[in-house]
Write a structure and sequence with these properties.
The chain is α/β, with parallel strands linked by helices. Helix content is about 40%, strand content about 10%. It has helices at about 10-20, 40-45, 65-70, 70-75, 95-105, 120-125, 155-165, 175-190, 205-215, 240-250, 265-280, 285-300, and strands at about 20-25, 55, 80, 85, 110, 170, 195, 220-225, 255. The chain has a six-stranded parallel β-sheet. A three-stranded parallel β-sheet has the order 1-2-3. Helix 2 links the parallel strand 1 and strand 2 (about 55). About 50% of the residues are buried. The model has no long low-confidence stretch (mean pLDDT about 95).
């Protein structure tokens, strides 16, 4: 049986649409979770569609350190690779020191708590979806609030560091209300590049909160992994993504892969599949490029606001 990528060779028109894509959600390794490819291999995979850049994400460690450790292999690799840090319990949670370290090492993103967020822990209370090859990680829940229920001093310092560095902040897997508070505090601190991850997966942010976030300048992310038939865990129809795009608008939307896991399609194969699906469903080529090339390049700091 042919895979989605092998079903037909990509057309010249599709390759033109995908040229220069920036993937802000690549789960290449190393990782305690099983990965299909490492960061160097991800760079070469990206070259198949002339990707402009890749941001590699780990739930557990500072990937800017990975990029520096792999600098010899990445020196001649075709697609530039960037890293950052997710503020989960493995790095001390909402930790200004870990944030400063990642920034000083060239990190381009600080992810809010993901696997340590209460919302994520609740969503995966049965342990599904996030297998670890390394056994128990002893994760603890991480909150952006202090004991009085206010945004904590450490959270505000993290946001100042992100603002001063001019890099991207995401809401991680926080619940909707906490993420909105996080982004409001970030906006007050001067953070400009902000992204909401997959609003209808794990975080389940409602429409009213999404509208408020967009008003703060937050971009709404949707992931190719959710819409690829080879990713059995989700498998949503293309029409669902099309409806999101038409409701929110391509100017507020980014599309990333959220791929790299063992057993799932390669990120570029998912771009090829879904790029054609969006064209076939009537999304204009210019709008697709807005979501995968221009908005993503802005968030990664490669361009000023589109």
């Amino acid at each position: 049986m042919a895979t989605t990528a092998e079903a037909s060779a990509p057309s010249a028109a599709l390759l033109k649409v995908l040229d220069g894509a920036v993937d802000l959600h690549c789960h290449s390794g190393p990782s305690p979770f099983p990965r299909r490819l490492d960061h160097v291999e991800a760079s070469y995979d990206g070259a198949r569609i002339n990707m402009r850049a890749i941001l590699v994400k780990s739930h557990h460690h500072n990937t800017a350190m990975d990029v520096l450790a792999m600098k010899t292999q990445l020196k001649d690799a075709p697609t530039p690779v960037y890293g950052g840090v997710a503020l989960n319990s493995e790095v001390g949670g909402i930790n200004p020191s870990a944030t400063a370290l990642a920034i000083n090492m060239g990190g381009r993103c600080v992810w809010g708590p993901t696997v340590s967020a209460g919302q994520h822990i609740c969503a995966h209370s049965d342990g599904d979806g996030f297998p670890s090859a390394g056994g128990e990680l002893y994760e603890k829940e991480v909150s952006i609030y202090d004991e009085s229920g206010e945004i904590s001093a450490d959270t505000r310092l993290v946001l100042k560091l992100v603002a001063d560095a001019g890099i991207m902040l995401t809401g991680g897997h926080l619940d909707g209300d906490s993420m909105l508070a996080f982004f409001k505090a970030a906006s007050e601190a001067g953070v400009k590049r902000m992204m909401l991850h997959h609003p209808d997966y794990i975080v389940n942010v409602n429409d009213a909160i999404i509208e408020e976030m967009i008003g703060l300048g937050v971009f709404v992310e949707h992931d190719l992994a959710m819409y690829n038939p080879e990713v059995k865990a989700v498998g949503w129809p293309t029409e669902k993504l099309v409806n999101w795009i038409r409701t929110i608008g391509p100017e507020h939307t980014v599309i990333n892969s959220d791929l790299g896991q063992k057993g799932n399609p390669l990120p570029v194969d998912a771009y090829l599949y879904m790029g054609q699906q969006l064209l076939d469903h009537g999304i204009p080529a210019a709008d697709i490029r807005q979501m995968i090339c221009r908005n993503t390049a802005y968030l990664l700091g490669l361009e000023e606001k589109p």
